[in-house]
């Protein structure tokens, strides 16, 4: 469980997936992408919200 929390926290903080994969001891980041796809999707939605807010602020 600590491993999952560690990886999730790093991904949500914006650490590149290949770096997270290396910290987990994985040679192939594709495995990390598959396992943590739900976190990456959430991160993308958050990025979209930040961008939308930035656009509203400049209008």
TrEMBL record:
Domain Tyr recombinase: 1-49
SUPFAM superfamilies: DNA breaking-rejoining enzymes (SSF56349)
UniProt name for this protein: Integrase
Thylakoid among keywords: no
Assigned keywords, A-Z: DNA recombination
Species the sequence originates in: Nonomuraea angiospora
Coiled coil stretches, renumbered: none
Superkingdom of origin organism: Bacteria
């Amino acid at each position: 469980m600590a491993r999952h929390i560690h990886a999730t926290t790093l991904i949500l903080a914006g650490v590149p997936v290949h770096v997270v994969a290396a910290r987990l001891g994985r040679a192939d980041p594709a495995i990390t992408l598959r396992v943590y796809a739900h976190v990456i999707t959430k991160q993308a939605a958050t990025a979209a919200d930040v961008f939308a807010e930035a656009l509203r602020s400049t209008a």
